Amino acid sequence: MTGFFETSVEFLKGVGPQRAALLNKQLNIVTFADLLQHYPYRYEDRSKFYNIKDIDESYQYVQVKGIIKRKELNGAGFKKRLVAYMNDGTGEIELVWFQGINWVNEKIKSGIEYVAFGKPNRFGSKFSIAHPELDPVMNDAPPKFFLQPVYSLTEKLRTGSFDNKALSRVMRTLVDLSISKVRETLPVGLMNSMHLISKKEALVNIHFPQSNEWLEKAKHRLKFEELFYIQLRLLKMKFVRQTVSPGMVLHNVSLLTTFYNEHLPFPLTDAQKKVIREIYTDLKSGKQMNRLLQGDVGSGKTIVGFICMLIAIGSDTQCALMAPTEILAQQHFINLQRYAQRMNITIALLTGSTKKSERTIIHDTLKTGVLKILIGTHALLEEEVQFNNLGLSVIDEQHRFGVAQRSRLWQKNKSIPPHVLVMTATPIPRTLAMTLYGDLDVSVIDQLPAGRKPIKTVHQFDSHRLQVFEFLRTQIALGRQVYVVYPLIEESEKLDLKHLMDGYESVSRAFPEMPISILHGKMKSDAKDYEMARFKKGETKIMVATTVIEVGVDVPNASVMVIENAERFGLSQLHQLRGRVGRGADQSYCILMTDYKLGADSKTRINTMVRTNNGFEIAEADLTLRGPGDLMGTQQSGVLDLMIADLGQDGELLKTARSKATELIESDPDLLSPENSVIRVQVESMKKSVVNWSKIS
Ligand code: ADP
Ligand code: MG
Description:
- By secondary structure, the chain is an alpha/beta fold.
- It folds into 4 domains: 48-143, CATH 2.40.50.140; 222-244 and 649-695, no CATH class; 254-445, P-loop containing nucleotide triphosphate hydrolases (Rossmann fold), CATH 3.40.50.300; 456-612, 3-Layer(aba) Sandwich (Rossmann fold), CATH 3.40.50.
- Helix content is 42%, strand content 17%.
- The protein has a 7-stranded mixed sheet with strand order 6-7-4-3-2-5-8. A 7-stranded parallel sheet has the order 12-13-11-14-15-10-16, sandwiched between helices. The chain has a 6-stranded parallel sheet with strand order 17-22-21-18-20-19, sandwiched between helices.
- Strand 21, helix 20 (571-578) and strand 22 (589-594) form a beta-alpha-beta unit.
- Magnesium ion binds at residues 301-302, 396, 425, 552.
- Adenosine-5'-diphosphate (ADP) binds at residues 266, 268-269, 272, 295, 297-303, 425, 449, 552, 554, 556, 583.
């Protein structure tokens, strides 16, 4: 049976070797199964007829029914065209042909009723459709399929004579051929309880819906199936880890107690304590921990990470902390070194710019077990970095690392995998977390340290820059420091650098007496360090920077964040940037500067920022605005290449799919019951064919 779906599309009637090569190259479609899963991205509704008088520019396509009153041949040579005037009793529309004029002219007759379909264009007060699809109205037999599929195609395919019509025809052939071969992939009980249509019905109706209702049913069924199998896979991984793979038992809290009693710099929040307890429970359980620690910017994740390291080190193992950027790794190092020194714990920093001599020492002491904490960038993943006994890996800002990198850090221990704590400052919407980190346990720090005042966020137009500068002056006079951030987008790096420099100049002009720092990605790393250090020490009052300061940078005395061209930033990025202030006890401010002209989405983003400080709320808004594919760092994760479901919209269905998958794993983890054999078969076949499936593991 499966053989059929693995047949090359080349052998499908209407395809052949040339078109097959095109499909393969342009859409990555090789087999029958691939083609069947190339679902339409929208449908043209052929059940609806518009009144000609109601047409306006907002319609992508319209279908009208009317009598061709007369025809005209206009223009000459290049400009020659055929115009037919169609009237439906409510108004008149022009149907225009520039090509195949003679043929069309012969075919269409005046005085007869036709159905025309196409994209309306406005000319003055009139509308026209160029090269419409035109069919005479046939007695009263309704067309077989009202909703016609529209497939995503590339320009090469379209010009390579494989347009939507051709693809639809081929798809029709394939769907007809497949019907007798399609295997059901969900158990009957599950389908009944969820009111799902069969796989067969779903495949037919997703391509050629009998009605809107059937289309919805087909989408629902296929989305559920897709989400269900992803969740099943993730939950299965978690289940296996929890039941089968052993974890080091780390239970010695003597170091932790010393730290608590003698060196704790501030009382921990209840949320921090709760999370530490959750982690401690994992560490001593004998099962490997894989935990995601979510906490808004400034919630104090770093010290939680450090305290957990104390448990690991107290239990005679080593720890790693991986950060996504060099600046962040350095900052973690500086912060944790303070604590570590008081505790007599060896600690080192390893990044791309660590000198060779230092590197050698690090490698050696790591191997012998003398070095207890290694902090670094992805340089930690290199082959030469070998631990004596790695007990705990902490990964900061995980969303910037791919799933593959995460698992490489798991593999750093020869015998037993280390415990893994993933910390993320970008709150991830629940739906996304369930898919991106569905195999992890989740802890949340939902509380900021005491005494923090919520950041005040305002929106200012560029024209009010002088007032803004005036405000900065008063804040600096109060002893505070200020960030001024410019966008940096890769495609226009040169231009952005120029903006940054212009901005630096204008700030310098406005504050001639003030020491100012500048920071951007093109600077050498020691120059960056130097500027960062000056700002941190308070020697400079204003930091003009690109988004390099975005992640985790911590200067508690900085209390104003000015974001230039705020409309060019995404929501989560704005939120991250804002999180750079509000870290001390002073009232902090975030000022979003924009031009007068703002698009609708930009307005929503700015308003959301002004309205709320809650990272989870912002993340949800971001997901709805942009969809998951665009969220920071999620593209390369592989898990999100969904065929049909949409995490931005299908959150409820995802939750259901996850709970159904949970029920299944709990009741029949090895899929042994006869009822679940369809699932077992499907899982096996997915392991072989679905790219995502293997990527996750
Ligand atoms: P994030 O969760 O964004 O990584 P950090 O760990 O950088 O936050 O902490 C932000 C700041 O808050 C740091 O200066 C840290 O020392 C401080 N901090 C953390 N926990 C507490 C606490 N319980 N009380 C007071 N300050 C704290
Ligand atoms: Mg942090």
